[in-house]
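ESCALATION

Customer reports they have been waiting on this structure for their group meeting. Please prioritize. Original submission:
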Amino acid sequence: MESITVVSLLDVISELFSDEISIAVSNKKEYIYYRPSKRIDLKIRPGDSLKEGTIAYKALSTKQKVSEFINRDVFGIPYHGMAVPFLHKGRLEGCVTAIFPALTDGKSVVTMKTYDGWIPIPFSQVVYLEAKDKKTSVYTEGYSGTHKYSLQEFEYLLPKENFIRCHRSFIVNVNHIKEIYPDTHSTFLLSMDNGDRVPVSQSYSSYFRKLLGF
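Update from on-call: job pushed to the front of the queue and completed.
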């Protein structure tokens, strides 16, 4: 496959991601593709060497998926990211990195769409989020609405000390959990303080118990 075809393919794949997310692709030594987003630009250029401390460097070093917050010491801009190494015939070839903007003061709200318009909701008032009907539904004690971000995007934008992914389709604010009930097959059911119930799936149950310490 010619290089121009590869770049064109990567441009198309990038369109599948939100314009809030920057995409970088590297081989084992340097970046070969970069698409900045409208919200965050690390000023990466094809041919730039991988920097120690980046999540791409960490993913290639460990040969495992890495997702974490990177402070401004590396690129001069703090960011959240996920890097996934890829292999060809069992050999490590490179890495794909999704770069999310870090939270900034004054923007700690989720602006959800309702029938009448939009309502900015402080993170502290968000009870839980649900992926449903190809949209993300946001629930508070008194309101509900939708947002254009996917749950994956929210997972990296919401403060990790308060929000936990508990199911493929749910993220909950632990400060709004009223009670936790055991359910079948090592799963749980969360009673939220807005009256709703949210499931904890089997694949997330151990992770959920570890984070909440029970």
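Sent to customer with the following note: The chain is about 20% helix and 40% strand.
Escalation resolved.
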